[in-house]
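tool=predict chain=A
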Amino acid sequence: MALRRIIGSIFTRGPLAVQSIAFRQHLPIGDPVVIAEAFDQWQADEIVMADITASAEGRLVSKNLIIRATKYLRTPLTVGGGIQTIEQVEDLLRSGAERIFVNTTARKHGTFVQEAAQFFGSQCIVAWIDVLAVEGKLRVYEHLTHRCIDTSLEDWMHELEQRGIGEIILHAVHADGQMQGFDLALAAHAADVAVPVIISGGAGSTQHFKDVFRASRVAGACAGNLFAHSECAITEVKRGVLATTPSIRSLHLTAP
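tool=predict ok
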């Protein structure tokens, strides 16, 4: 298995980073570029930046924001929000993003993922799936309509894999901002597909990362609120996880 990743996620609404709580509350917390630079300094393995209102507002995640964020970053940046065309993907990659992710467009435009994967390579194209726990079942959630779709999570993951997606991010809407731990039942779905799967939503401590890495085959785990509000939290989490999970990427000796 490839080395597992500890990933810093940043939710934005236009130019502002926000703290998301259950997809209902979005509290401004500052400049996303400053947060990205901190994640980079604290040795995140990757940074995911998601503009959570871009699709609803009919716009694209800010290209200027990506240029600013990647000017000094050493950490790979994955971005998404409002992406609808191959030209937009090219623009964002040229602006400094390592990869892009799609959510709404993957569902609404059936050939988009396949075309993007063929044009840029599967490694550049990631699928973001919002998942909501409803009456004990994990359902694919459509954030624009606030409804769950009919396709099962397993079927949607398989379909994306067949279309050529390079990686899947599973975000637990019901755990979003709660800091009570990752949804381990959701993380177990990493075994459903051959492509890497990242778990997101609910991280509140180092133990939560240990738990999800021990209990599932996820290739990485994301945290936003935990890392944005705790100085050097990524470094501390890595130190703690390395003690029991040596398959994550090591810290540099210069880490604080």
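The radius of gyration is 17 Å. The chain has one domain: 5-242.
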